[in-house]
Amino acid sequence: MCDDHKKEKKNNLKEEKEGKQGSMNPDSKSDGKGKKPILKEETTEIRGNFVPVQIRTLDDFTTIMFMVKRDQIAYKIKYFFAKKFDEALGWFFKIEEGEEIMLPAKVSGMKVCLFDLYKLIIGYGGHEIIIVEDKWNEIAMSFGFPECYGEAFNKLFIDYLLRGRVSRIRRSMKKDIRQMHLKTLALYFLILVCGIGLGATLIFCLYSIPLNSKPKQLFTFQIPPTTLEEQPPGLYAINPQVPNQTTESTTPTTNNMVTNTTTGSIKEEPKHITETPRPSISSAFLHGMRDEQLFWRASMVPRINKTPFKKIPKVAFMFLVRGRLPLSPLWARFFRGYKGFYSIYVHTQPYFVGEVALEPMFQGRRIPSEVVTWGEISMVEAERRLLASALLDFSNERFVLLSEACIPLYNFSIIYPYLINSKKTFVECYDKEGPVGRGRYDHKMEPAVTLEQWRKGSQWFEVDRHLALEIICDKKYFPLFRDYCKPACYSDEHYIPTFLNIEFPEANSDRTLTYVDWSKGGPHPYKFGKWEVTDSLLKQMQNGTECVYNGEPTRVCFLFARKFVPSSLIRLLELAPEVMHF
């Protein structure tokens, strides 16, 4: 109930009557001292201020709210302004918000004067101050309610008073946005006009140039026939990369027979090549083959072991990412100076548009991709797609799967010989009891895969060329995992470990080269942020465990680590020279 209104009713009875008479009698006059309000058609004069009799426009609403804030006037004719305050709120929600509100406001069936509530909250310093100092119980007691009704008064204020304020702010923001859009549209129109004018000027200039003009030939070049070597026929046109070359290219060289003529000119006779040429480095994708053609091309193996070129074994770094590589500056520093010893392949989501990284070694290294969903067979399909793309280069001998959250723990001069000289591959493979291990096995896979052969391991693997070929050519086990290993069976954790355990158990070391922290639990490993990256953390990842490498014990067990969030890049670049030595 409106208790303050009852207490002041007797004291303000005279002013209330004046307010009522002024609002009902449009012909009444006033002596200018506030004793009797003067009404002029749509407005009434109160204490020298014109107040609208009926609220019909936003200006009328604004005037009422302005007068309510002036205590010297509002409290003098409190009944009049309390009524106008309710009318103003009702008009605002009906016209501006398109909804009706229930007036008068009530709490637990008892009427509450919104005018008194508004003035009381303003007196306390505003809604935010009341929330911080927890004054709602006191406000409830001021209206004659128990303390437990404090939250009800808070809700009443939000529903009737605060929402209108938010709506006015939102409307003002929409107005500013419209103005900004109009300015942007005008700017675009200006640019369009300038572009049309520039284009017309260029067309006029081009048409003014004679088409039959031919520059004079000042020099004639002769190339001896012995300077070009004819490349033997094969499946691919291979242009091996040498570390000291100044440019890196993935485009095959077209063979031409060059002969000298009596006039000293050069006559080129192209040699026909039947295979599909690989795209240039400026292309958006490394190749344009779909999966069926890609796997067929990648599965071919040369039967002559001796290569007709100087072969440098390379490591294929395969990045399975969603979009861009946020840690690419760190990887660029890692690869710097070792061109010809590595290859890069990037599998993104197909809808990603843009460059995966700005560094030159990542340009043109994307492969055609399909949508990848976490925990589904599409993850394994992406891994096989990366392996097949990397197998197209006969120089690739080792294949490492990485994510956008991975970092190298050592420099290239340590990681490269570690992989190239290893006698085994590095795929984590172990037998695990319980629902996240053997519990994911489906007996429909029998007899090809039995429960005793079922294995689990990390998705992030490293294999040699022989096993990479076996994985992409597998037609026996992959269909079983595609059909029977579905969430909550995560095929990326089971397919390759189980496949190697059945077919090539002696070729695998049963451990991964990628460090992850599972100590916090959950379906995903711990993420390392900017403030958690320290030299002690990186050194613990480097030397914190002991393992076996080529039959000898070693503490260099992890060459890579994850998950590092993008904000950790600056810190990693600072620590790389000291800890990783690159």
What does this structure look like?
The chain is α+β, with helices and mostly antiparallel strands and 582 residues long. The chain contains 18 helices and 16 strands. It has helices at residues 3-7, 13-24, 58-68, 71-74, 78-95, 114-124, 127-133, 136-142, 150-207, 291-298, 328-335, 377-391, 412-420, 465-473, 478-484, 495-503, 535-543, 569-580, and strands at 38-40, 43-46, 49-52, 106-107, 110-111, 256-260, 266-270, 314-320, 342-347, 396-402, 407-408, 462-464, 514-515, 547-549, 552-554, 560-561. Strand 8, helix 11 and strand 9 form a beta-alpha-beta unit. Helix 3 runs antiparallel to helix 5 (78-95) and helix 8 (136-142) crosses helix 9. The longest helix has 58 residues, at 150-207. It starts with a helix and ends with a helix.
What is the CA-CA span between the terminal residues?
A: 75 Å
- Could you say which overall geometry the principal axes of the C-alpha atoms support? elongated
Number of strands: 16
Number of domains: 3
Average pLDDT, all residues: 76
Radius of gyration, whole Å: 39 Å
Range of strand content: 5-15%
Biggest sheet statistics: 4 strands, mixed
Give the CATH level 1 class of the largest domain: Alpha Beta
CATH architecture of the largest domain: Alpha-Beta Complex
Helix/strand-derived category reads alpha+beta
Q: Helical element count? A: 18
CATH topology-level name of the largest domain: Spore Coat Polysaccharide Biosynthesis Protein SpsA, Chain A
Query: What portion of residues is helical?
Result: 25-40%
Poorly predicted regions are: 1-41, 211-283
Strand order across the largest sheet: 9-8-10-12
